[in-house]
Amino acid sequence: MIDMNSKKKITLTPIKKDDHRFLFELLEQRQLFANISHKKMPTWDEHVEFVKSKPYLKWYVVVHKDNKVGSIYLSKQHEIGIHIFKKYEKESIQIESIKQLMSLNSKIKFRANVSPKNKKYITLFKKLGFEMIQHTYELDLRTSF
Question: Labelling 25: which of 32, 46, 60, 143 has CA 20 to 30 A away?
Fold first, then answer.
């Protein structure tokens, strides 16, 4: 069982317009093997359009000691996505962020789509009690032949 009442060292603040640059920098720092939704880095304009489209049910900036350290979202399919800047990437920050997201949205079932190459996040979600429910395969004809 997950303890949702741990001491809060971080806060989640809803994404605002002035977070576009921060989110772009976070995306630039992300390792390619962790990406599921895109194969190449979007342009600045593509990124801004994506953020403005409000693609997630909930999307937050993760703040630790007055520093923006990452972002976390809940998709419309109730999937959790999280990314923390490498210099702040501590399991305690990730776990607390996920617990807070679930606490703020507690009346639903949660899932997490994680690249099979992202061993760190697989381990993280398993520690939180998540269980693997499927393998998903993709064939992109634009790049396969």
Answer: 143
Task: State the Rg of the chain over Cα.
Answer: 15
The tens digit of pLDDT for each residue in 83-129 reads: 999 999 888 999 999 999 999 987 778 999 888 888 889 999 999 99
Token pair of 107, please? 């009346």
Residue whose C-alpha is closest to residue 124's, from 99, 94, 97, 103: 94
Phi, psi of 82 (to 5 degrees): -140, 140
What is the reported pTM?
0.83
What is the b/e burial string over 31-52, where b = at least 16 CB atoms within 10 angstroms of the residue's CB?
A: eeeeeeeeeeeeeeeebbebbe
Contacts for 52 with CB less than 8 Å, ≥ 6 apart: none
In a 3-state reduction of DSSP, which class is residue 4?
A: coil
Question: 124, 130 in Cβ contact below 8 A?
Answer: no
Distance of CA 82 to the CA centre of its chain: 2
